[in-house]
Structure formats: C-alpha cells, structure tokens
Amino acid sequence: MQGRDALIIIDVQNDFCPGGALAVADGDQVVPALNRYIAQFSAAGLLIVATRDWHPEKTRHFKAYGGLWPPHCIQGSKGAEFRADLALPKDAVIVSAGMAPDEEGYSGFDGRDDKGAGLADLLRAYGVEKIFVGGLATDYCVKHTVLDGLKRGFKVVLLEDAVRGVNLKPDDSEQAIEEMVRAGAEKV
Ligand code: VGL
Q: How far out from the chain centre does Cα 26 lie?
C-alpha cells in the first residue's frame, strides 16, 4: 500500500450472502478478510470505497423483464443493505450501481456516489493510481470492475482471499480470475 492506493469493496450486501435472494456460496466469508483490509487502509488514511448493487423494482437485469437474475438488491430493501458485520468506516465513500431500469450495473465504474460522481472521477480526485479490489461476486461485479479499472489506466490488485463467485458454471470464478490476470491485474 502507498499514498495513492484505494480499497474498493464490491457489493458485500445481504442478497449476495447465504440466505439472500442471489446468494453466493460462502459469500459471507469475504467479510473477515475485508475487515482486515479495511483496518489496514483506515490506519494508513487511505480511501475506502464500497460499491452496492442498487436496483429499481423493474429492471431488465431481472428475469421477469428479460434479464438473467431473480430480483435482488432492490433500493432501500433489507437485501440491499451491506452485511452488518462489514466494518465500513464512517468516511467510506458509497457508490451505487445498476440504478437505471435499462442498466445491468456490473461494473463499479458505472456507479455513482451520492453527489453523482462516477467512480473513476472520484478516484482521480483523490489521486488514486492503484486499486485493491475484493467482494462479490468474482465472476460478475468484481470481474467487470477490475477489467474496467485496468482499461481506465488504474493499476489493479485482486484480493483473492476476499472474493467469492456465483459460478453459474462451476469454473466461472477460476476463469474470471484468469481473465483478470491476463488483462493485467495482480493477485495477492
Ligand atoms: C452481481 C450477479 C447479478 C454481482 C450482480 O454483484 O456480482 N452478480 N448482479
């Protein structure tokens, strides 16, 4: 970690954890690892961003409207809340994605903070050059955020101990990790 580093925590929300509407196997197990990274980044005074999937009730992201998924992370619902055991500091910046009914919102870089700033602009405003990414899910939002970050010129570190995948096909997460590394991500 250095002065220009930031931690990006992807979608650690109730609906992606066991018992949730789109539960990722062992999704809750990213929390202890992420809490350790949060403590390190906080102690170093570095930026921490938490993204959230934040959908309207009707969106083409959901099966009923032509998409892939059951309803999940609906704005304001319990399922859309961050896991209660995720130790987000008060000054973490929250970035919401998938808010428009015609938007999948897989990438954190498609998301905005409460003032409407996009993630890339936010990171640049803080002088961030390198992002450390963990959370849910490896094969969707983590992958898209990592690939977008690389495309936009950020150095990207994948926190391999702090991600879990949906795995519609059993090796989706493994392939997603290979794809991220091939695109230039470093894993730790
Ligand atoms: C996600 C599937 C559907 C994710 C979001 O956060 O990775 N996965 N919507």
A: 16
CATH number of 5-187: 3.40.50.850
Q: Report pTM.
A: 0.97
The closest of 36, 32, 125 to 85, measured between CA atoms, is 32
Q: How is the chain split into domains, by residue range?
A: 5-187
Interval between CA 153 and ligand 1 midpoint (Å) = 24
Residues with CB under 6 A from ligand 1: 11, 16, 22, 53, 69, 136-137, 140-141, 166
- The residue whose CB lies within 8 Å of the most ligand 1 atoms, and thus the one to mutate among 8, 9, 10, 11, is 11
Place of tokens 């704005």: 75
pLDDT tens digits, 63-87: 999 999 999 999 999 999 999 999 9
